[in-house]
Design brief:
six-stranded parallel beta sheet, alpha/beta, Rossmann fold, 18 helices
């Protein structure tokens, strides 16, 4: 198989790193002939994560380079092309259709509900059928969660759920378990801080009433503008080298999300990380969060009133806290390991 991988970002962006770049060594082990081509540059990703204004020159360069890459592929021998979402953002599906017309096999990977990006745009009429068309002509669709599967099955008959995966052997080195709840943890980018903000008043109330602290891992400059650090709340700068060490300090991982279409299309990666460290989790009961909970071990907030204070109080008083975490580690080993899911990806692309 000659495989061309078209990602949205390079290795610095979690979505592309975990769903593509972390597979590459396993592709090499299988003697797979591949090339990988990000759309946006690392500089664009750095500006995005640091909430800086993105350079229009960098954006234009991204479109220019991708255009000539596709031109070069079009007239070569038929290849298998794995696309992260779409070839070009905010351009109709002309290029996906051209590749198929020229005999290439395209596979689409979805790890977010990016098809919703076009729902409220000025060019809605132009883009509203973009993803239905792409999914229909693709040879197969890989999705990261159940919510995305429910969307994709409307337009494709060949779909597989492959969750965003981690190296469980690495996570095992950092596993530890507490009998009781002492530290609540959250990890996220600046774009997901708004999800934490809407439950933050309940969190601070709980911290004031119980002997528990909160550990937040992310962009510290951005977090400081929203959350006040004190003896109960610790803000930690995210770093790929220390990520697992910092996460291993928590006893419970949380993932609050408003109940909307976009969030129901998420892949629950925070929960996967917590579970791989043998931590119990508490999250909003949305489609993929429930799917990730393979054995009904994790905790969910009440969707009707979203009462996180009461949910945390019940967890604090629970007697099976450690058992849930230990079983989560075993589930992560069986379902979320990168080596297992790399093999599933290769098998699916070989159909």
């Amino acid at each position: 198989m000659n495989l061309i991988i078209l990602t949205k970002y390079g290795n610095k962006a979690p979505s592309s790193r975990y769903r593509f770049y972390n597979y590459l060594k396993y592709f090499e082990n299988e003697k797979l002939n591949y090339s990988i081509h990000p759309f946006f540059s690392d500089k664009y990703v750095e500006d995005l994560f640091n909430s800086k204004k993105r350079s229009l020159i960098l954006v234009a360069k991204s479109y220019f380079l991708r255009f000539f890459l596709i031109l070069g592929i079009l007239f070569t021998k038929p290849k298998t092309i794995l696309i992260q979402g779409e070839i070009f953002p905010y351009i109709p599906s002309y290029f996906e259709r051209l590749l198929v017309f020229m005999g290439h096999s395209i596979f689409i990977d979805l790890d977010d509900a990016i098809y919703l990006n076009y729902n409220n745009t000025f060019f809605f009429r132009l883009f509203k059928n973009k993803f239905p068309k792409i999914l229909k002509i693709s040879k197969g669709v890989i999705v990261g969660g159940k919510g995305l599967y429910d969307y994709a099955k409307k337009h494709s008959n060949n779909i597989i759920i492959i969750p965003t995966s981690i190296d469980t052997e690495l996570y095992k080195k950092f596993r530890n378990n507490s009998e009781t709840l002492n530290v609540i943890g959250w990890i996220g980018s600046p774009s997901s801080e708004k999800d934490l903000e809407f439950i933050y008043p309940q969190l601070t109330r709980f911290l004031n009433d119980f002997d528990v602290t909160l550990l937040l891992i992310g962009n510290i400059e951005s977090m400081r503008s929203k959350f006040i650090a004190n003896h109960k709340v610790k803000l930690i700068e995210w770093n790929i080298k220390t990520e697992l060490l910092e996460l291993s300090k928590i006893d419970l991982g949380i993932m609050p999300l408003p109940d909307d279409l976009y969030n129901n299309g998420k892949c629950s990666f925070k929960l996967i990380q917590y579970m791989a460290l043998s931590k119990p989790t508490l999250s909003t009961p949305l489609t993929s969060n429930i799917w990730v909970d393979k054995e009904n071990l994790n905790y969910f907030s009440n969707l009707e009133n979203d009462n996180w204070y009461e949910s945390l109080k019940l967890i604090y008083l629970s007697k099976d806290f450690k058992m849930r975490g230990l079983k989560n580690g075993s589930i992560a080993d069986s379902f979320f390991d990168v080596s297992l899911n790399a093999k599933k990806t290769i098998s699916f692309l070989s159909i």
